Amino acid sequence: MPPVRDPGRSRPTQRADCVPQLPCDEPGCNRWFRNLSGLTQHKRTYHPSFSRYPEGFRNNPGLLGSVEHEDHVADRSSPLPDHASDGYQGEDLLDRERKAMSAKFIGPGSKVYRNYHPGLNAHKCDNRGQFLPDDAPPPPCAEKVPNDWNPYRNQLEFELADFLFTHAEMSAKKIDMLLEIWAASLLESGGQPLFMNHADLYGVIDSTRVGNVRWENFTIQYAGEERNNDPAPWMSDVYDIWFRDPREVIHNILANSGFTDELDYVPYREYDASNDQRRWQDFMSGDWAWEQADRILGDDPTTGGATLVPVILGSDKTTVSVAMGQTDYYPLYLSIGNVRNTVRRAHRNAVVLIGFLAMPKTTREHASTPAFRRFKRQLFHSSLTRILHSLCRPMKVPETVLFGDNYYRRVIYALAAYIADYEEQVLLSCIIRNWCPKCLAHHDNLDENALRRSREHCDTVIEEFELRKLWETYGIVGDIVPFTNNFPRADIHQMLSPDILHQLIKGGFKDHLVDWVERYLVHIHGKSEAEKILDDIDRRIAAVAPFTGLRRFPQGWHFKQWTGDDSKGLMKVYIAAIEGHVPKDVVRTFRTFLEFCYLVHRNVITEQTLTEIDDALSRFHRFREVFRNAGVIETFSLPRQHAMKHYPYLIRQFGVPNGLCSSITESKHVKAVKRPYRRTNCFKALGQMILINQRLDKLTAARADFQQRGMLNGTCLSKAFEVLGSHTNRISEGQDAVDEGDEQTASYEEDAGDTLDDPMAINAHVSLTRKYQRARAKNVGALAAELGVPEIPTILCRFLHSQLHPTDTRNPEDIPLYECPFFDGKIRVYNSACSTFFAPSDLSGTHGMRREYIRSCPMWRNEGPRYDCVFVVTDPQADGMRGLDVARILCFFSFKYQGTLFPCAVVHWFDRIGDGPDTATGMWIVRPSRRTHNLRNIAIIHIDTIYRAAHLIPVYSSHNIDPRGIKPHHSYNTFHSFYVNKYADHHTFEITF
Q1: Is the dihedral of CA 267, 271, 277, 279 positive or negative?
Q2: CB neighbours of residue 212 within 10 Å
């Protein structure tokens, strides 16, 4: 471990003789720069001269591709050229950019185009780094036999190993028991199970070669001076750090064929073709990637044609056991910025566990000493330096790497972003708690405008001032060397990414706003009355109707163990629950905060969205004053809330924040740390956890390899059926018959949305579930009796007329019944329908598709009936809620008429109240629609007109109804006006404006 810095020493910084030598040649600009990289970045930012929309859309990926490179076969890299220095006066790189800049339309309809970086343009090459023509086939590689399952004997053996170890997570003892039972069943036929015992199974998995990045470890021990004869215990302890080579891990990610179509190889700037507005989405769309490419190319022009691979890190302590003693681990994760956000968020092994950091502990006597705290900080940074050491050289000199498309490319790495909560950011940026790690605002007034922190500024003030001055004036811990000082072009202050989970959801919402409301009620009403109001808020939250993905709080939200999911769930329903108990400005504070959260969480953010984000933040700052004016709080100088100011800039730098949120690493904790820990015997568990993770990675890599070769098309059973021939059909038909007769009622269906990896073929589609309900109505008359709607037969006749005569513009109620076709045949009733829609801002598949179930069943989970609401498209030309109507599904059914199948829904319409959303909550208000004589406005609609499910929350403040005793399934029947809950999920927020 590097020695801890003495107070008089300073961080390594730039050369003392490096004074500005290069002037900006733009008229009126007086800036000077030390090197060509700085001048290039300045010109690209402040004096852009190329067209966003170049004429002819020329494509010249070969920029700088003709530069001769020395081949370095041993390390697949090229040496630094002699002229790659600050004084290099070669050809003007900006001129080359202007000549090579090209635009390319992407997606259907030519609605979006991109400008790709002309320098680091991911040019294909051979295994020696020599560039290939654009149309060159992939270099020859060792072909694998299509039926080579090595080290497994066949598909059955692989599928069994993957099932037992990955999915069932079966212990060694249970595996042996299962295999013994299997062996006993095969004795009479003389057969043997696929594996003899757990050792045989583990041995086969361990012999898998693909995906094998071995674990290594090193130790660190305190090397400073012991100040007395009785040293603290932590000074003599040895700390083990386990890790995997991050360079090899990145090679595996790049070589994964499953990621081939989900990688961005070149930095780009994306624009809307209709108005030339800039759009930000995945990491490579941000300014950081483009500017980093400029900087690399400015420092070394011979890197032209290489591929920039931004390295994304993340770390956070996690607790795996409390009941058996506090057991914590400190995992370190790695991803790359080339992987698109949907893949990173979909947990497709694009985020990889690469290490377990040490967590020093000592006695209470020494735990709070400055020496121990300093040692812990430096141990953290020194560990990261050692783990990432293999990336240092290829950050300067490109190396040749094989990608999943079987092409080689010259790769250059850069430390890009670090996913961390606030406590981790304090440690990473070497600052003091309650200061901002991104800017120089004083901790007493964080919302003042201040310059951004940077490595250069930090090194400069450390040179100039003593430690106390650094601590009090800049919030800097000046005697710690951050790990980024050991890597080129790395700046920890620039790397820290926005964190929606801890800064906004857990921090700004739960820890700040919700707590302020409780303190406000106590301050205004006194503790006794405030508790009654809080109980009423709890009852309102508990009475909210169920909805896919909505978290329910049957006992309210006052409990101790809060998770991120709890906070997310409360955000969706809290604003309606407090209305009427707090002033309008408090409600508006929550509204503006939620709008900010939902806007920054979008999968695509435009310049217009950034304007809306700035506006929401400005209104939030204005309305939150209600808490200070009431005497509830004294200051808004809160680091996590202050972080909201930096979101617009960070979006421009890194793309949308949902691709760098700590919720990604929190989810990875479950798969990589917590579940493997539960599979150990808890004695020296770390070694067992590492082995479990290694085997999981090998199985995942093996599956990807077999899929690439087309060896996993179909199931083991279907493959066996192919061998059996005609017998297959009889078995299959019998199996289908069993499936069709197997009744699965809605009481047992899981109420959670699914992520789909299917490509986006349509924005939204609704279909009935495969299994109908045999115990429910079988004809129209029985359906009318079941629903208590005697006019169903008449409504169905008019529905059929509208379907058979779509050009008839008359009001259906004005059409005489004798003109309408009559139907009295059989029908099939369904308890649910499936809605599939494009919702990339929510948790979705790699292509942004999500699936949810819309319920309409007389009994849900043995608690009561559930009849969901939906959005129905009534005006496709209108935007937002003006083109949608809300209806409640009373029944899904289908019937055939003249050979055509009609999947339908019986609905009860809702009417909108007012011409726009409520000014306080920002949500539209609706009420159940009534016809003459106060009859319910019932209709039958084709399910193709349904967009997706809708969630309604009662307008509690307008009802004189005590929610005490009201169950969730009573909500839609008890109340008479409702908010259309636009905060139910991110997709709903985007369509209900």
Answers
A1: negative
A2: 14
| Alpha helices for 111-240 (secondary structure H) | 155-162, 172-185, 198-206, 233-236
Pair 890, 906: CB distance under 8 Å: yes
Contact status, residue 466 vs residue 7, Cβ threshold 8 Å: yes
693: enclosing H helix or E strand: helix 685-708
What is the rounded distance in angstroms from the CA atom of residue 934 to the CA atom of residue 951?
24
Of the candidates 88, 44, 163, the residue with the CA atom closest to the CA atom of residue 715:
163
Give the tens place of pLDDT for each residue, 218-233: 999 998 777 666 688 8
What six digits make up the tokens of 154? 């066949």
Instruction: Determine which of 87-101, 154-168, 280-294, 620-634 has the lowest per-residue pLDDT on average.
Output: 87-101
* C-alpha closest to that of 795 among 819, 767, 817: 817
Q: Each residue of 579-593: pLDDT tens digit?
A: 999 999 999 999 999
How far apart CA 345 and CA 917 sit, in angstroms, is 32
Assign residue 396 a region: left if phi > 0, alpha if psi is -120 to 50, beta otherwise? alpha
State the Cα–Cα distance between residues 605 and 610, nearest whole angstrom: 7
Q: Please state the φ and ψ torsions of residue 170, each to the nearest 5 degrees.
A: -75, 140
> In whole angstroms, what is the distance from residue 736 CA to residue 711 CA?
25
Counting other chains too, the contacts that 245-249 makes at CB distance below 8 Å and 24 or more residues apart are 245/213, 245/216, 245/390, 246/311, 246/334, 246/354, 246/387, 246/388, 246/390, 246/391, 247/390, 247/391, 247/394, 248/213, 248/390, 249/213, 249/334, 249/352, 249/354
Using the Cα atoms of residue 521, residue 522, residue 523 and residue 528 in order, give the sign of their dihedral: positive
Question: Which amino acid is residue 68, in one-letter code?
Answer: E
Stated pTM of the model: 0.85
- Residue 104 has a CB neighbour count (10 Å cut-off) of 12
- Tokens representing residue 743 in the block: 């009744």
Q: Are strands 408-419 and 307-315 parallel, antiparallel or unpaired?
A: parallel
